[in-house]
């Protein structure tokens, strides 16, 4: 009998695990004045989007896309001036949140191999991009 390999999403505790990781991540953002200043006053809508996105990105139900359309993450980050420093902090806090939630290190390594380049891809501080807020826009 062949056994199904355990998915990263399962190892992260499913959608509930991702929920806890995102809460933890945002607590770290809130405690860092320079990171916090990049985020809007109300953190809840962003938290919800990040949760839906991560579950989908890890192979779970595509609820992010159902609600907001194509992720187009780099474009969605244009309104926020993101430098290499921010990408480094983002990755550090995300890794700390996964660690604090007991995700096995082997699973984390797989995830961060993909998250590392993705975070650096968001860097836009030297680019001439439109900075107009996008809000809850649906993209295709
Ligand atoms: C490089 C460092 C990053 C910084 C400083 C950053 C910062 C932000 C900020 C300020 C927002 C807006 C939050 C809000 O509207 O409440 C946001 C949204 C979001 N971020 Fe990032 N982010 C980074 C990297 C990433 C990465 C690597 C991912 C993917 C794993 C990601 C996924 C998202 C998602 C899904 C949203 C919601 C987009 C939307 O639908 O409007 N971010 N981010």
Shape: globular
Separation of the first and last Cα atoms: 42 Å
Q: Tell me the helix content.
A: 55-70%
CATH topology: Globin-like
Structure overview:
Helix 2 packs across helix 4, helix 2 crosses helix 7 and helix 7 packs antiparallel against helix 8. The protein is mainly alpha-helical. The protein starts with 7 loop residues before the first helix and ends in a 19-residue tail after the last helix. It has a single domain, classed as Globins (Globin-like, Orthogonal Bundle). The site of protoporphyrin IX containing FE has 21 residues, from helix 4, helix 6, helix 7 and helix 8.
Lay out the secondary structure.
Blueprint: H1 8-11, H2 14-30, H3 33-36, H4 44-57, H5 63-68, H6 73-76, H7 84-100, H8 105-121
Helix pairs in contact: 2-4, 2-7, 7-8
The structure holds protoporphyrin IX containing FE (HEM).
What's the short story on this structure?
This protein has 140 residues and is mainly alpha-helical. 59% of the residues lie in helices and 0% in strands. Protoporphyrin IX containing FE binds next to helix 4, helix 6, helix 7 and helix 8.
Q: Which properties best describe this structure?
A:
single chain; mainly alpha; Globin-like; 8 helices; globular; binds protoporphyrin IX containing FE
């Amino acid at each position: 009998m062949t056994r199904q390999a355990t998915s990263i999403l399962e190892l992260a505790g499913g959608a509930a695990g991702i929920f806890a990781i995102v809460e933890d991540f945002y607590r770290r953002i809130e405690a860092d004045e320079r990171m916090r200043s990049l985020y809007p006053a109300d953190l809840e809508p962003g938290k919800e989007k990040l949760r839906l996105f991560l579950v989908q990105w890890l192979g779970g139900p595509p609820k992010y896309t159902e609600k907001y359309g194509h992720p187009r993450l780099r474009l969605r980050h244009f309104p926020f001036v993101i430098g290499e420093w921010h990408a480094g902090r983002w990755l550090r806090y995300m890794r700390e949140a996964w660690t604090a939630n007991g995700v096995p290190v082997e699973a984390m390594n797989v995830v961060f191999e993909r998250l590392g380049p993705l975070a650096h891809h968001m860097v836009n501080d030297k680019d001439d991009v439109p900075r107009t807020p996008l809000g809850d826009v649906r993209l295709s």
